[in-house]
DNA sequence: CCAGCTAGG
DNA sequence: CCCTAGCTG
């Protein structure tokens, strides 16, 4: 809620790293919990290390804050184009690997902020925003591939009430619902929030709307893994969320 | 939840009563609370009186039970065609006035019964069903007029999360949101349930999807009133819900 | 048969 | 910063 929806039109290029397969598009999405003030320098450093290690073509970050931006810019601005979704408080940020992706255009779409009537812990607001995302994805021209990734805070029973068109797929479902990367928020494993109660949820999701026009390169989900599972030296994890690193085959 | 969605294709005819204007289509929708065992004979008699008084062309009843059906059939079967949405427990029933409406075809569509995860008092299930209704209405051929009426149990904040196409309108909204017939379930005014807490909600709703094809008669919401506001001699109301009596102009 | 709050896992 | 059950107006 109150976050922004970010869009970027991208064209692929080449290069290779340890995780990267030249013919795949790679994406990392991560709620990096910039609002958590604990051990920020170490966690920002951890985040940069993960990004350099995985070297994703596209990075979608949520709950970004200015101190993180400054730190990351120093380490990554050579390799990545930064697209900030805001300036104050917390906001989203997209990074595009310069050697692999050409930014043609970008647009920030802030969500209308409406709490409805505090509909049960913002469930209504989440679903309204999710509906808007699904609608926007399905409306895209049929020669466009559309990717959505981020922390949705959606519960499965909320997603179940929304009619998702055939053209759009959930990456995790498409890959056979691997148990290993089901839960992206997990207070059993992640102790950043030191909660008395334990729970795990699939808050972070990636959606793909394939291009459907003949002759346009077709993308398919290829792999998916959670990122940030290791404790940093400071004793905390990079975020209270795990990141999702995924790859897509092209044609 | 667990109810049925009913459909009827209808063609108009003529006749006239006190409430009826010959050129209007009239409709009564009412959750008659057949599960409430108190004073059933009197309440069933009251229901029949209302129907005979208003003489609506189409009657949509929810929470109907077999004892009611038997009673009503004796009084109304001469004038109305009965379409039962089920046989056991409680179910919907449609009545069509024989002199005004010709039944061409009918189909009962039971909702898939899925509780999701008991999402806050079945909110998720309500919205899933509401989505299905809206989708089905919008998918109808453009020379069809589609009417939906019934007890939805929907809260305004639930409806607000659903994208309703331009082609579909809420009768009550279309008529300028008259305060007089806003709340169809009202424990301030209706004492059938003798609740300690007081509340009023717009549970019962009527939706219209106009025919859009040229040359096809166009229906427009014309009037709306609540029904069943009078206490019966037994001291109870006909139902814990008010009914909605409404008329539509044609062309 | 509502909605807001609280306690406890 | 989770979810559920139970209480209360």
Automatic annotation (TrEMBL), chains A, B:
Its main location: nucleus. GO terms for molecular function: hydrolase activity; metal ion binding; nuclease activity. GO terms for cellular component: PML body. Residues 28-241 form the Endonuclease/exonuclease/phosphatase domain. Keywords: DNA damage, DNA repair, Hydrolase, Magnesium, Metal-binding, Nuclease, Nucleus. It comes from the Eukaryota. Residues 1-21 are annotated as: Disordered. InterPro entries: Endo/exonu/phosph_ase_sf (IPR036691), Endo/exonuclease/phosphatase (IPR005135), TDP2-like (IPR051547). It is found in: Nucleus, PML body. GO terms for biological process: DNA repair. Its cofactor is Mn(2+); Mg(2+). The keyword DNA damage applies. This is Tyrosyl-DNA phosphodiesterase 2. It comes from Oryzias latipes (Japanese rice fish).
């Amino acid at each position: 809620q109150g976050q922004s929806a970010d869009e970027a039109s991208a064209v692929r290029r080449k290069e290779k790293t340890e995780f990267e397969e030249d013919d795949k598009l790679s994406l990392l999405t991560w709620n990096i919990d910039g609002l958590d003030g604990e051990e920020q320098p170490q966690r920002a450093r951890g985040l940069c290390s993960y990004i350099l290690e995985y070297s994703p073509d596209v990075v979608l970050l949520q709950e970004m804050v200015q101190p993180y931006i400054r730190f990351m810019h120093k380490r990554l601005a050579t390799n990545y184009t930064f697209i900030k979704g805001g300036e104050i408080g917390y906001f989203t940020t997209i990074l595009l690997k310069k050697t692999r992706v050409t930014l043609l255009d970008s647009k920030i779409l802030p969500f209308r902020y409406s709490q409805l009537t505090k509909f049960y812990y913002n469930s209504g607001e989440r679903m309204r925003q999710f509906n808007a995302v699904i609608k926007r994805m399905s409306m895209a021209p049929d020669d466009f591939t559309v990717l959505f990734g981020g922390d949705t805070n959606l519960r499965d029973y909320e997603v179940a009430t929304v009619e998702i068109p055939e053209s759009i797929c959930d990456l995790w479902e498409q890959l056979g619902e691997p148990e290993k990367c089901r839960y992206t928020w997990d207070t059993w494993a992640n102790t950043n929030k030191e909660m008395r109660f334990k729970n795990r949820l699939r808050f972070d999701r990636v959606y793909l709307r394939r291009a459907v026009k003949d002759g346009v390169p077709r993308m398919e989900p290829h792999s998916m893994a959670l990122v940030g599972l290791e404790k940093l030296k400071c004793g905390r994890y990079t975020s209270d969320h795990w990141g999702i690193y995924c790859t897509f085959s092209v044609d």
